[in-house]
Amino acid sequence: MAGMMALFSLIVAFGGCIVFLWPSGPERLVDEFYAYESEAEFGKSWDLLSAEMKLRFPVRADYVQNRAHVFLQHMDVETFQYEVGRSKKVKDWSMGKGGKVHKTAYRVPVTQMFESHFGVFTIEQDCYVVKEKDEWRLFWDYRFE
Fold first, then answer.
1. Which CATH code of 3.40.50.300, 3.30.870.10, 3.40.50.720, 3.10.450.100 fits the domain covering 23-140?
2. Taking the model in full, what pTM does it have?
3. Judging by beta carbons within 10 Å of its beta carbon (0-12, 13-18, 19+), is residue 143 exposed, middle or buried?
4. Which residues, including other chains, have CB under 8 Å from residue 88's CB and lie 6 or more apart?
5. What would the pLDDT profile of 36-72 be if each residue is shown by its tens digit?
6. Is 131 exposed, middle or buried (0-12, 13-18, 19+ CB in 10 A)?
């Protein structure tokens, strides 16, 4: 019986470690988004934006062209590294003034590290993730407006 309890405790501890170390749905979405961005797959990253974000970037081809122009042409970046932080639940969040209020969102910090024509630099940005039609979707923060 003691052996069974020890085995059970080991399984619970191992499962807890997996749950703690495995990224959450919001973190996985942000990681997927920036993996596409780092490989200049801007059309695929656009697909992961929320419907509200797509109102800011309504034409997929324009988003792709603008992201490529900024990162690949102006900054002369071929690829970049990034780190996705741990998500934190946020209640009653909106993307900007007058925007839809989301009962629950997840703030996910991202750090992007670039080696460019202008030297090495880092951008830190919080992304926000919500469920839309049972799928995780990404927002950026526009609450400065």
1. 3.10.450.100
2. 0.80
3. exposed
4. 106, 107, 108
5. 999 989 999 999 999 999 999 999 999 999 988 887 7
6. middle
